[in-house]
Amino acid sequence: MPRGVPREINVRILEGEGVTKYFGGLAAVSNVDFHVDEGEIVGLIGPNGAGKTTLFNLISASLVPKPGVIKFKGENITGKKPYQICRMGVARTFQMVKIFTNMPVLENVRLGSFFGTLPGMSSADIAREAAELLEFVGLSAMSATPAKDLTLANQKRLEVARALATRPELLLLDELMAGLNATEMAQAMELVKRIRDKGITIVMIEHVMKAIMSVCERIIVLHHGEKIAEGTPREIANSKKVVEVYLGEQADAGS
Ligand SMILES: Nc1ncnc2c1ncn2[C@@H]1O[C@H](COP(=O)(O)OP(=O)(O)OP(=O)(O)O)[C@@H](O)[C@H]1O
Ligand SMILES: [Mg+2]
C-alpha cells in the first residue's frame, strides 16, 4: 500500500463473545469468540457435529446463546426473535434445503421479500425484484416450475434467491455445495462471489475444501464446539492442529 494512504478501516458487521450453547450436558458451541468484517467471505469449517450449524442457529436467533453475546453492526441482538434478525439484515440458507415445495419458484422468492428489510414494498416492486433475483441466480426459465421439480442444485439456488429477497447485509450459507457435481459447484462458487460483489457479507459453512479455500478470505475452525483455529486459507491449510482433527480426514475422504 502506498505511504500516506490510510488503511481501509474494517467495520465489524458481526461479533460473538463467549458464545455457548448446551444441549443437555453437551456443549454444542463452547465459549466461541468470533467476528466478521463487512465485505468478507468467511468460511466456517470443522468435523461433523463440531457445532457449525448450531452457531448459525444462534446468529439467526432460532437458538439463544447461554452464556454469550452476539452483536450485529454493534447492536446486541442476543434474545431477539428470528424475524427481527431477518429485518435487521441477516439471512440464511439451510443445510437441508427448506423451500415451499409445491409453490412455484417465483412465489418462493416473493415470500422472502415479505420478511425482509423493506416490508412496505408494493407487490409490483416485490414481483419485479423476485424476477431480478431469479435472473441473478440463473433460474429465470423456471419461475413457474413447482420448487419440488427442481434439481438439488437449483433448489439451493432458489433458497439463495429467497434469502437475498429479504435484502440482507449478511448472508449465512450452510453447506451450499453439498451434493452438487463439479459443474454445479463451480457455478455455486461463482454465485457466492457475485453475491459478495453486491456488497453482501458472507459466512459459509462447507466441507468442500476446494470451495472454502478458493472463495474465503478467512476461515474459522470449530471442533467439539470450540474454536480451534482462525486464519487465512493458507494459514489454516498449514495448521498442524487443523490437519490433525479435520483436514487429514478430509484428504483421506478425497475432498
Ligand atoms: N436441537 C438439538 N438438540 C440436541 N442436540 C443437538 C441439536 N442440534 C445439534 N445438536 C448436537 O450438537 C452438536 C453440534 O451439531 P451441529 O449440527 O451444530 O454440527 P455441525 O458442525 O453443523 O455438523 P455437520 O457438519 O454434520 O452438519 C452435535 O453433537 C449435534 O448432535
Ligand atoms: Mg451442520
Keywords, please?
4-stranded antiparallel sheet, binds adenosine-5'-triphosphate, alpha/beta, 37% helix, 255 residues, 24% strand, binds magnesium ion, 6-stranded mixed sheet
Topology:
Blueprint: E1 12-23, E2 26-37, E3 41-45, H1 52-59, E4 69-72, E5 75-76, H2 82-88, E6 90-92, H3 105-114, H4 123-137, H5 152-165, E7 170-174, H6 182-197, E8 201-205, H7 209-215, E9 218-223, E10 226-231, H8 233-237, H9 240-252
Parallel strand pairs: 3-8, 3-9, 6-7, 7-8
Antiparallel strand pairs: 1-2, 1-4, 4-5, 9-10
Bound molecules: adenosine-5'-triphosphate and magnesium ion (MG).
Estimate the mean pLDDT confidence: 92
Order of helices and strands: EEEHEEHEHHHEHEHEEHH
Give the beta-strand count.
10
Largest sheet composition: 6 strands, mixed
What order do the strands of the largest sheet run in, or round the barrel if closed? Answer: 6-7-8-3-9-10
Structural class: alpha/beta
The termini sit apart by 36 Å
Secondary structure tally, helices: 9
Bound molecules: adenosine-5'-triphosphate, magnesium ion
Uncertain runs: none
State which percent range the strand residues make up: 15-25%
